[in-house]
Write the structure tokens for this entry.
Amino acid sequence: MKLNKAENDKRLYNTYKAGYAAFTAECAEQNARTLPPDRIGALEQQCKKVLKKARMLLRRLPKDDIKRSIERDCEALYEHLDTIRRAYIAGINTQHGCALNADELLALPKFKLQKLNIQDVVFQKLVRDLIPAHPKDEFPLARRMKRHFVIHSGTTNTGKTYNALIALKEAETGVYLAPLRLLALQVFQLLNEDGVACTLSTGEEEIITPGAKHISSTIEKLDTDKEYDVAVIDEAQ
């Protein structure tokens, strides 16, 4: 049976009030300040669902006592959301030694506060704080080293790797870094055949050559704590 608008609004209102009552009862039982972050997140989602229904009813209902009552409910729900989110931020600060500012993170218009997830806001803030604005600043120790770069560019079979390996062989210490295991193996064999002791290190195998001061490896195996006179990065693009 198809419901008319008044009946449908009444049904929506009853559903909303049941959800509001369940949420407020949950809040009365639980102290958000003592809940673990995952439980606070669940409480936030429950509050947002109730608030969404309330705002939908506000758009549908005429101006009357019921609508004014829902408006008061909305204000209470926003207060609950604020308390829940501040408890989450305080918990993260306590557990992980952070110094997140709740006033700064929650300084948003109400329509945005209703949509956001506090876990996402906190995560994005931590990522922004951890990662420098400029990628070059992610490696301060490397940038303090006195280095220079030589870029070999050209079409296929123009001697790019050949010329780079000449410099590698002449260096006292060096590393060759390849994107593929077979390339690392090829250079490992080439250097040893030319009398330059070289060790091999890839994700699949490691061959230690006694006394070697050169190493040929796949790039993920690079030991960034070591310094080399020459480092060849093949297929650097």
Summary: The first helix runs from residue 5 to 29. Strands lie at 174-178, 198-201, 206-207, 214-218, 230-233. The first strand starts at residue 174 and ends at 178. The chain has a mean pLDDT of 87.
